[in-house]
Amino acid sequence: MVIVFVVDNFKNKSNGTTITSQRFREMLEKDGHEVRVVTNDHEGENIYQLKTNFIPIVSYVAKKQGYTFSKPNRKVLREAFTGADIIHFFTPWKTTRVGLKIAKKMNIPTTIAFHVPPESIIYGGNLNFISKPLEYYIYRKFKKTYKKVRNVHCPSKNIAEKLKKRRYPNQLHIISNGIGEEFIYKEKTTKSDKFKILTVGRLAPEKDQKTIIKAISLSKYKDNIELTLAGIGPNKERLQKLVEQLGVNANFGFYSKEQLIDVIHNNDLYIHSSLVEIEGLSCLEAISCGRVPVIANTKKSAAAQFALDNRSLFKGEDSEDLKNKIEYWIENEDERKKMELKYSESTSKYKLSYSIERFTDFLKEAINDHKNDNLVESKVAKKYIKRINKGRISRTFSSLFYYLVVPILMLFNKAYLRVRFVNKKNIKKVKGGAVIISNHVHSLDSVLSGLVAFPKKVIFTSMRTNFDLPVAGLLVRALGAVPTPEGLTENRVFFNELSKKTRSGRFVHFFPEGELIQGDTELREFKRGAFKMAVDSSVPILPIRITFKDHKKKKDKKRMVVNVGKPIMPDFTLNTKMAINKLRDQTIESMHQLGYKMN
Fold first, then answer.
1. Which tens digits make up the pLDDT trace of 319-345?
2. Residue 250 binned pLDDT confidence (cut-offs 50, 70, 90)
3. DSSP characters for 390-428?
4. CA distance 125 to 471
5. Which 3-state string (H, E, C) describes 245-275?
6. Neighbours of 560 (CB within 10 A)
7. What residues does CATH 3.40.1130 cover in the chain?
8. Which candidate, 517, 482, 475, 480, places its Cα nearest to that of 496?
9. For 2-177+353-373, which CATH class?
10. Peptide bond into 455 cis (omega under 30)
11. So what's the pLDDT on residue 415?
């Protein structure tokens, strides 16, 4: 593949986004791909250089963090994009916004990463006093850019969950930034009369190194501790003054990768105090080298996921709690040495080689999605799309019919059907779109699913034969159901178009069993379609099980029970095939349980 990376800074060795772009490029080129880079701070082969953009106030603050913005140049961007198979953007800044427009005109597929947490921007600008409204504003501002790209690379589950919570309409792929193969376990070999503690990261407010310094100053082992702060940044002078003021034995340094590995191996304990973290690559690297970590446990940091137990977690910004954890590991050397190997082994799934494999699949999937988007121009596709995206008159009639008939059906249910609904509260746990699935055992079971979701209007999928049924067929048509596809082209268009709808917040209903069998009490084999839709859209499956219960008064009759399960999210850390299989297995298990839990 010919891949284009668009990243403002490609030379900066202290920025996590830059380091990721460098490593990914190197590994992709080893695998035989051509990787071009559009940036503002580097020259070389396949490097397309932009000028630096000056933004009043913002550029000044960013430069203190070691960051500069590129100035988009349409001619340079078009030159870099020509002949490319895909373009990957690393940040949501102006060059990306311009680049997306050019890529669209050139009909080239695009992907984007979420490497810049708004919380870091707020900390970097010392704007914590208005953090909540500012967070809301920045996430919303970013969404305007991200909604233009379907596939988004998230370095951690933490950030993926934040994007889903804020209703980003994207397909999310959790892919670690990856640890290099050279970060391997090694016991500390150099002897020292000091207990050596290491922290790695930019010397910036959100990294909160001051809590580490304060914690050491409170410890009864203060005089026996030597702290190394590896990194550069705007807070260096403040931290040096704090070290002198509190009398902590500390040294500051910035190291090459090879030097850093040696430094890690020659320390006893690693502390990661960052309050905001997309992933925490420096923490992963230290753990991979066998250093037991003590990690700040905060809502805005993903690094806490690497802790194997609470002994490696402390409350963010709480120097007293951190002091206690440090003293525990000093006093329990045998336990610390035992845990070193366990921690190193725990990072195997974060190896860079695996991340590159996942990232390559991610790019290929985006290219395939782009091809499906282009399918809409074929005659077969256009005809089928009209049956999915109905005209304005049809949509208006369907909506009017839906909101008129469903309340009537509710009354009909209470007066005659007397279907019992269980756990309807679970539907309120869904924020945004979802794929609803249910077993197919009654001619009105799609209507029952509609009653569960009301007042939200559900897009029903139905076999084409159901459109010809005497009474149910009329309901199916009037409710705006979408016919399931026939043929490869229709199938690709079906998933492509409905995925757009679920990502935008709609509910889509499937019968994964396919055929209707009246009164069936057993679950039949589930087809993959509903689960593919959920994975493609990064939305949950909402399982519904319809069962039949003996009527209390009329022994010859059965009463229907509609039991709503808890939403089940796809596993974004897996590739598409594995995620679909896992989601289907989890749903089947949930559906079996719903057949028995009637309370």
1. 999 999 999 999 999 999 999 999 999
2. very high
3. --HHHHHHHHHHHHHHHHHHHHHIIIII-PEEE-GGGGG
4. 63
5. HHCCCEEEECCCHHHHHHHHHCCCEEEECCC
6. 20
7. 378-594
8. 482
9. alpha beta
10. yes
11. 66
Residue 567: partners with Cβ closer than 8 Å, 6 or more residues away: 426, 429, 430, 434, 540, 541, 542
Could you tell me if 560 and 548 are in contact, meaning their C-beta atoms sit under 8 angstroms apart? yes
Whether the Cβ atoms of residue 128 and residue 206 lie closer than 8 Å to each other: no
| Dihedral sign (CA 293, 298, 302, 306) | positive
Report how far apart the first and last C-alpha atoms of the chain are (Å, whole number): 55
Q: Residues of CATH 3.40.50.2000 domain(s) within the chain?
A: 2-177+353-373, 195-349
Hey, which residues does 461 pair with through a beta bridge? 482
* Token couple for 415: 């007066």
Question: Which class would CATH give 378-594?
Answer: alpha beta
User: Which pair of structure tokens corresponds to residue 222?
Assistant: 């203060």
Find, among 258, 275, 264, 226, the residue nearest to 347 by Cα.
264
Beta bridge pairs of residue 270: 198, 293
pLDDT band at 400 (very low <50, low <70, confident <90, very high): confident
pTM score, whole prediction:
0.83
Distance CA(447)–CA(442), nearest Å, equals 10
196 close to 278: Cβ distance less than 8 angstroms: no
Could you tell me how many residues make up the chain?
Answer: 599
The token duo for 76 is: 């340079």
Distance CA 566, CA 393 (A): 35
**Cα separation of 129 and 39, whole Å?**
33
Among residues 505, 507, 485, which one has the least CA distance to residue 402? 507
154 compared with 514, residue with greater pLDDT:
154
pLDDT value for 598: 43
Q: Are residues 158 and 246 in contact, defined by beta-carbon separation less than 8 angstroms?
A: no
Specify the DSSP class assigned to residue 519: T
pLDDT at 85: 97
* 195-349: CATH topology: Rossmann fold (3.40.50)
DSSP annotation of 176 reads -
